[in-house]
Design a protein that fits this description.
The chain has 11 helices and 3 strands; from the N terminus they run H-H-E-H-H-H-H-H-E-E-H-H-H-H. By secondary structure, the protein is mainly alpha-helical. It is globular and about 45 Å long.
């Protein structure tokens, strides 16, 4: 437990050199015999991604990101209610929870992993700022096959830095989640176009680039 606190505290100041999900992908590739597999990532500070990408991510993934303490109780209650009505249990993970899983843990749905995810979520919310949580998310999210982070993904998909892409192109990038290894922003399907349009609309309703000022206040 003490080591986990130190680990989270370290990553408040130091960019993670590798994440749990990255390690998982490397192991999967080695087991399949792919010895050429290598992680493609480029870390960039939050102020280098432009004003629209962070807002698009919040709009798509966690609209109450600035207001909760790691767990969105509203979405959790809605997910449970939908389950009780016979529907499929949908995800209600916040950006903080996704960072906890991606950086410190592994994918999967075991009770152990969920418990550890909750623990690390509490820690990063206590030790990191919201700005740091979002910065780490932007840089460690899986964005394609062997591709991690939006900074490198924008260059691979559109040949430009994130800050040079249009709000709609950035929305297409975000719309590929949570299946970025199967969806490509540079080859958008009708679903991706629909999803991206919704993300742009939601971004505007959240205040657009003005949301970043709230993040830093």
């Amino acid at each position: 437990m003490i080591m986990s606190v130190f680990w989270v505290l370290l990553y408040r100041f130091v960019d993670p050199p590798i994440t749990g999900v990255m390690a998982e992908r490397i192991i999967e590739a080695r087991r399949s015999g792919d010895k050429q597999f290598a992680i493609d990532q480029q870390w960039c500070a939050l102020d280098r991604v432009g004003p629209y990408l962070p807002v698009a991510i919040v709009a798509a993934e966690d609209q109450r990101f600035l207001d909760h303490s790691g767990f969105d109780t509203v979405e959790i209650e809605r997910a449970l209610a939908a389950r009780e009505e016979g529907g499929k249990l949908r995800g209600a993970s916040t950006i903080s929870q996704q960072v906890a899983k991606n950086v410190f843990l592994w994918s999967g749905r075991s009770y152990l992993r969920k418990a550890l995810e909750a623990w690390f979520t509490v820690l990063i919310e206590l030790i990191w700022s919201k700005e740091r949580i979002l910065e780490v998310y932007i840089n460690v999210a899986e964005t394609g096959e062997a591709l991690f982070g939006f900074c490198r993904a924008c260059e691979v998909r559109f040949g430009k830095d994130c800050e040079r892409l249009s709000p709609y192109q950035l929305a297409l990038m975000v719309a590929t989640l949570p299946n970025p290894r199967e969806r490509r922003a540079d080859r958008p399907t009708p679903y991706l176009h629909q999803r991206a349009s919704w993300i742009v609309q939601q971004s505007e309703q959240l205040g657009g680039p003005g949301l970043l000022q709230r993040l830093r206040d």
